[in-house]
Known about the structure:
The chain is of the alpha+beta class. The protein has helices at 8-34, 54-77, 81-104, 113-133, 165-173, 177-183, 196-199, 265-274, and strands at 138-144, 153-155, 162-164, 188-195, 209-218, 227-229, 235-237, 246-255, 281-287, 292-298. The protein folds into two domains: 1-134, no CATH class; 137-299, no CATH class.
Amino acid sequence: MRADSFSARRFWPVAIGGTITYGAAAYGLYQAWYKNYDLVNFRTFDDSHEWLQMDKLGHFLTTYSQAGTIYGGARWIGFTPRQSRWTAALVSSFLQATVEVMDGFSANWGFSWYDMAANSLGAGLFVAQDALWAEQRIILKLSVNMAAYPTTLLQAANSEATIPLNVRGGELHGVSVAERILKDYNTMTIWASANLKALAPRGPWPAWLNISVGHGAANLYGGFENTWTDEAGNTFVLPEAQYPRYRQWYLAPDVDFSRIPTRRPWLKVVLTTLNFIKAPAPALELNGRGRLKFHWLYF
């Protein structure tokens, strides 16, 4: 239950626990993403056209979701709605700025103003909806289909060296479930899920039913293009005709788990946490190759 006014007894455990979680997450991110790359002087990097903007949508989603969690904690402590909104916006933006600073000192990346803009939009979406409606009627969500990469053997353009595409996919996007959820842009879809009852209250739909629009991408074997050179100097060029880089748009029903009625506080917390995930459902896909597809069950 939320406190009626500011509670120092609640504030300090949240502040200490949040600090410890932040430190552990920053360390884990460094180990998973940065430790194998050289450190350089701080620099900026124009990545506005990288990964078909899937990474920008990832920043958008992450900051929005963090803002929601922080807002809930601030309200539980006893902050007013206005204080909680600003706390959510500032702290979530700070957390994502940590990632950008790490990028800025990494030889393989750089500080991105475009990422910072996506972070601001994510926090702004949460704050704007809470200020306007005192609730989130449009929720950002994630789904990851974990599809296997093809085992097709690709020969280098300047040597006899070869590499299976699934090996390239693993090197680039990770092999473990945690790595692929974090950075495999070929298998993730970012969704904007709108609650029908909140937006059109006179309709016949149940309170928990949403309609969602998703964006994904396919055949991303490099940030800007499907060409890369390995440490041995072998240059690989993936044929565009066989593996074109393209976007995917989806339309699907969804569930707003936070609107499922329950009298159990712990279950309410579980359901609200699940709202980060898009519910598996039938989906209609229109992709950048001009093809329309129907999925009986898409996640």
